[in-house]
Amino acid sequence: MKTKKIPLRKCIVCNERKEKKDLVRIVKNNEGEVFVDMNGKANGRGAYICNNKECLDKAFKSKAFNRAFKTNISPDVYNSLKEELYKNE
After folding, report:
1. How far is it, in rounded angstroms, from Cα 58 to Cα 76?
2. What are the C-alpha distances in Å from 81 to residues 2, 6, 43, 59?
3. Which pLDDT does position 1 carry in this prediction?
4. Cβ neighbours of residue 54 closer than 8 Å, sequence gap 6 or more
5. Residue 44 has pLDDT above 90, yes or no
6. What is the CATH number of the domain that holds 68?
7. Could you tell me if residue 53 is inside a domain?
8. Average pLDDT of the chain?
9. Which ranges carry the YlxR domain (predicted)?
10. Sign of the C-alpha dihedral, residues 63, 40, 11, 85?
């Protein structure tokens, strides 16, 4: 039997390749809204980060989301992302 291929994605902060289900997808949609996509199926440009506080803090300091989405992300958006990720832990 064939083994099913497991989708891999790379964290934009630490550049580690992990299974898609182990990472958190952050999405910027056509309206410019940035939010956490827990299902991994929302429309828009997606970026993946590890599901831990260290990677999110490093993303804020290194402006990783600004590079991934090619736009400036306000600190308010980072704070809302932190709240959403921390409540899911």
Report:
1. 16
2. 39, 27, 18, 11
3. 77
4. none
5. yes
6. 3.30.1230.10
7. yes
8. 90
9. 9-82
10. positive
d(CA 28, CA 48): 12
- For 23, phi then psi, to 5°, come to -110, 165
- 1 within some domain: no
Query: How far lies 39's CA from each of 26, 28, 42, 60, in Å?
Result: 11, 14, 7, 23
What whole-number percentage of the chain has pLDDT above 70? 98
> Which residue reads 């182990």 in tokens?
22
Please give the C-alpha separations between residue 18 and each of 10, 11, 31, 32, 77, in angstroms, as whole numbers.
6, 8, 29, 27, 25
Which distant-in-sequence residues (6+ apart) come within 8 Å of 69 by Cβ? 28, 34, 45, 47
Q: Indicate the helix (H) or strand (E) that contains 66.
A: helix 64-69
Q: In this predicted structure, what is the pLDDT of residue 63? A: 92
Helix, coil or strand: residue 53: helix
